[in-house]
Amino acid sequence: MSFSANVKEELAQKLPDARHCRIAETAAILSFCGKVAIDADDRCRVIVSTENASVARKYFTLLQKTFNIKTDIIRRQNPYLRRSPVYLVTVAQDESARRLLLGTKLMRNDGQVEEDISAVRSLVIQNSCCKRAFLRGAFLAAGSISDPERFYHFEIACLTQEKADRIREVIAAFDIEARIVARKKYYVVYVKDGSRISDLLNVMEAPQAMMEFENIRIMREMRGSVNRKVNCETANIQKTVSAAVKQIDDITLIRDLMGFGGLPESLAQIARLRLEKPEATLTELGESLDPPVGKSGVNHRLRKLSNLAEDLREKCGSERPENRPEK
Question: Whose CA is closest to 156, among 312, 314, 259, 4?
Fold first, then answer.
């Protein structure tokens, strides 16, 4: 199974002890993947549709343990995705359906039932524990999380802006910042920061998934740190080699055009040493001098030789003496 499916499987097995938390989780599932069907006689049915079997089982258990409502799970083939079946959990009796909606505070104030179930103004998530349960139910119904081996991404898809704002508020209650983006007909609440996603898994009470996520995140960060250090070392080596090549090129030009006899002894000494030790670092060159010279002193002398070489190039009009035009 995918990492997201594993997370949902773990969350589906979590059944809150407190009835108010079970109500909050049921309200979230109903709000995100449920609907109400009302017939001509004003009788209503509550239908939850999901492609995840663990979500259907969790909702089925919540109905039984919290509202003493017994129903069946019907498995149907999705007409659009042949390989993905749809699981339907229907509360068919009008009295049970209304009791369910009343218990989850998903009915209007006047007692009327609407076909669009929304927990935007629900009173079932006043407590912190209920917010955890509500967020867990919303993720089970409409959420997903990417494989942390590839990238970090947590999201919950909402059909309305109001629902998205509500989910973001619930997440913010745990000091976690989430954002909203419009994607086709959905408003997607998402988090991309690895540490915040780990916090969300903890908030939803998925300790096994959180530990797996953290282990992968630590390994990724270690690999990233090693790669950055290797890249930095490689860049430094390339920079050192390029500088040495340029220094040797300048010194060779000076030697061929004017020789080292006219140079101050300090510059002549470092020039000869650089030609003898083309792969040596500035520190190693300084230690080979008599008396030894620090890195900055070696760099200062080589810079003087470079300036002298540039002056010679300007006078000769070429980078190599052999490339000068014949007189």
Answer: 4
